[in-house]
């Protein structure tokens, strides 16, 4: 069988790395002085393993809420005699000055710091420690690293192991003026995207003689001629969101060895510079080694494109000679990459590039998400929004790629609300029934994890709604069981506010109900301890105050029915939290709501199965209510059946516990006999038993023949209407011997014995011919409890 999309397993290296990081004290480390994590003395790790440990650690910190960060993790790599780091990628505010100081003795070759806004100028001292070996450095979005937190310039504590870093805020007025890249002789690739306006890039970069790649995204350039110092070496230049001028274009054209040039902008609306046919032609003619060009976000003048009636005939072509963009006809060969996002040029027919970003079609949009996710969230957000429209209105033909790109964007920008909103909306459509058969278990689990990350990070209505709706696309509880505790905690947190958004409330309650349906009792007990029962009762209370019986009300009672099934602790919680009072209020306020009555009586049936709790039901008020409901025709026989079930368990305890004068026990039993006689034994049922144990418990007794009769009728109805489902269950749970005993009991009523014999015959026939079918259709029914 062919593997489904995204089903490639993790490598052994990845699995081992994650295991070690989750179990540091059991694998590589021990608890040292003051509970500090220390590397074992017999551990010596090469750079391949150390790099993987650090980079995977950062990924787990940002994407796995169950992962506990270690305060002194980076200190494990302080001694290059036992650990070797060469290539490190760190992201977001989690990274502190002390972390870089911990690894300052390492001979780093690559160091990528992205959006590390907690770093101050103290980290510049750590950077100078790497100057003899560093080849690639990224400081993109590290807006505070050139400012001091206080103290001496470039202060770096020699004993950071013993001294805690002060978390004083960075002052934007304390610019670090003493740092430059003097001595970074091996540095070839440098990203200074987002460099503060107060910093002079020319002065900062002057010592660097051997750069081949430079990124000055979002940097204000007062002069441009300094770029020519690398005119014979520079192969890649990124000037994203840099204000273009004739002077800058002239300088760029002198960089004759450029292979990648990015002069794109975030949006045409912010661009004052007009990209003319002359400028674009000059770029193509002068920079003859170009393989990658990005001019996204520029206003393009109309004379750049070939009129439609003059375009080359045939299918879209990448041949330069057929290009629909005049200047690109000058290319010697097609470009590997061409950025045309948010330009009119992406809409032409013939584009001489193998990979194009734009908004014309799915391929261009996916290329844009792929190209811009890491460092340009503003573009990524817009491209994902366009992918959302394709998945919603049309059809996504590159499903695996689309899902992987959206997942990557959500992981990368966990703290970007706009991406979380659009990404979660796109996932809803990309995981629906239309695409489901093509997705692997592994891929769908990745979706669930990023959705839960979004729910944890944002309490905002749109994110919560999108995430909840996306979870509805999964088989519940099966596909969510690997995150069972986490998803229940998040849903209960959504339902805590007194007045939550109505649509979110409805979806969240539906999910809660589905999550406690068809799961083991230990799952139900765990969820009950989280406050599930109280949360549902609070919702019911609010709906009563509003005098509204809607889906939230019905789902809440259904969820309580499910979570109390064979779970005595949850039944006790229901009683302790005024559950019976709310039951009576709902009956009074909504006398005609059949579904509501069925759910409430099903729940009380679960409570009645717990012997220790039955005395709390044995009051004149409650018994009268249950007795009156025996006559109910609501939802077929379900309300009457459930009411009779509650009373059957109460009657099972015998006459000695019946201490009230009214209603009389005999009168109630008479109504129970009459109700059972009125039911059609071939009734289709809106119920689903996972176990017959509570029913079978009522068979071997003589104190209440009506309880025995109700239990026998229930078994006869279920095995005759749904033999394939319930005959094996009854046989498995020892029901046959108990029914045979009913036949021998003197106190059993003739009608009860007659039904018991029929149940036995049906199960015997089923054992002989398991393919026996019945006219009753088996399917998914409402959960019992």
TrEMBL record:
The keyword Repeat applies. InterPro entries: ARM-like (IPR011989), ARM-type_fold (IPR016024), Armadillo (IPR000225), LRR_dom_sf (IPR032675), LRR_Zer-1 (IPR056845), ZER1-like_C (IPR055142), Zyg-11_UBL_adapter (IPR051341). It comes from the Eukaryota. SMART domains: ARM (SM00185). Keywords: Leucine-rich repeat, Repeat, Ubl conjugation pathway. Residues 410-764 form the Protein zer-1 homolog-like C-terminal domain. The keyword Repeat applies. Residues 203-343 form the Zer-1-like leucine-rich repeats region domain. GO terms for cellular component: Cul2-RING ubiquitin ligase complex. It holds the Pfam family LRR_Zer-1. Belongs to the zyg-11 family. PANTHER family: PROTEIN ZER-1 HOMOLOG, PTHR12904. This is Protein zer-1 homolog. It comes from Cynoglossus semilaevis (Tongue sole). The lineage of its organism: Eukaryota, Metazoa, Chordata, Craniata, Vertebrata.
